[in-house]
């Protein structure tokens, strides 16, 4: 089972590759727009529509790959076990201290402790960055106001 550092690095690497791919798509789109505007082309609108459609399809495929890869039970379990192994049962203690959280909040905690950024987490969970920022703030506030002995420890591990 891969360790937390390997999984985090793999996710960061994939996120960087996806960002580079998105930039390449944007550059290609701009190049085609410039080419079409420099020549008389009857099917300009059709070509631009096709380009937008293909770009959306590629983007959706990338998002699906990331969401399906990193949201699996196997990956979540692997990350939680790695956190426990390297941080003295941090995740198990967190679940013990906060038994009534939703799975998505546990996943947010796991990804935050793993060092992932809100934009990366938003891609993995399929939610907007704003939603992730808000959920992270609410989770931090809940931890801070909980009165549990390890609250500061949990907050210190969240990125």
List descriptors:
single chain, 159 residues, mainly alpha, 8 helices, 0% strand
Summarize the structure.
The chain is mainly α. It is built from eight helices and no strands.
How would you describe this protein?
It is a single chain. With 159 residues, this protein is mainly α. The protein is 79% helix and 0% strand. The two termini are 23 Å apart.
Q: What gyration radius follows from the Cα positions, in whole Å?
A: 20 Å
Report low-confidence residues grouped into runs of 5 or more.
Answer: none
The sequence of SSEs as H and E is HHHHHHHH
The structure class reads mainly alpha
- Biggest β-sheet: count, sense, barrel? none
Strand content: under 5%
Q: Which whole number gives the mean pLDDT?
A: 83
Number of β-strand runs? 0
The coarse silhouette is elongated
Summed up, the helix count is 8
Helix content: over 70%
The end-to-end span amounts to 23 Å
List the helices and strands and how they pair.
Elements: H1 4-38, H2 44-70, H3 73-86, H4 90-97, H5 103-113, H6 118-125, H7 129-144, H8 151-157
């Amino acid at each position: 089972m891969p360790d937390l550092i390997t999984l985090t690095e793999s996710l960061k690497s994939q996120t960087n590759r996806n960002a580079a791919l998105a930039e390449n798509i944007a550059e290609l789109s701009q190049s085609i727009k410039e080419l079409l505007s420099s020549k008389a082309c009857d099917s300009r609108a059709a070509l631009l529509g096709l380009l937008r459609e293909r770009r959306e399809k590629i983007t959706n495929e990338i998002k699906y790959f990331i969401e399906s890869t990193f949201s699996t039970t196997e990956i979540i379990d692997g990350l939680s076990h790695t956190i426990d192994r390297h941080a003295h049962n941090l995740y198990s203690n967190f679940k013990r201290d906060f038994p009534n959280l939703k799975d998505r909040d546990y996943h947010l905690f796991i990804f935050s402790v793993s060092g992932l950024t809100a934009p990366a987490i938003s891609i993995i969970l399929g939610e907007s960055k704003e939603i992730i920022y808000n959920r992270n703030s609410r989770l931090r506030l809940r931890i801070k106001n909980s009165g549990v002995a390890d609250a500061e420890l949990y907050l210190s591990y969240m990125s």
